TrEMBL record:
SUPFAM superfamilies listed in its UniProt record: SH3-domain (SSF50044)
Keyword field contains Iron-sulfur: no
PROSITE patterns: SH3
Keywords, in A-Z order: SH3 domain
Organism: Lentinula lateritia
Protein name, as recorded: SH3 domain-containing protein
Domain SH3: 16-77
Amino acid sequence: MDALELSRWTRFATKGGIGKCTAIQDCVAESSEDLMFLKDDEIIVLMQIPENEGVYLGYCEGVVGKFHAQTVYFHSKLKRPVMTKRNSSAMSSRYRPFNIVELSSKRATICRF
């Protein structure tokens, strides 16, 4: 993940991502793409990894990485991502931030990057 992509994911995390979860066990990163966390750490969920069911991209303690759903407790249903085309060609197509539509009974909010 390059610096620009990391910056965008970090900014998305400060806006709450698509949801939150809490670690139910310690998880040691096995590769540079994995997220390391301790039991009871709060993780901001950024996206579900499309090619791996049960694997998510998350943010914890200033670090962005992948984690498995079975190692966390999700606080609520995750928000639904709305994919949008970006003009930036510098960004990897692997993990790309997206707009989120949060629907409630009173309003719809769109978060943009």
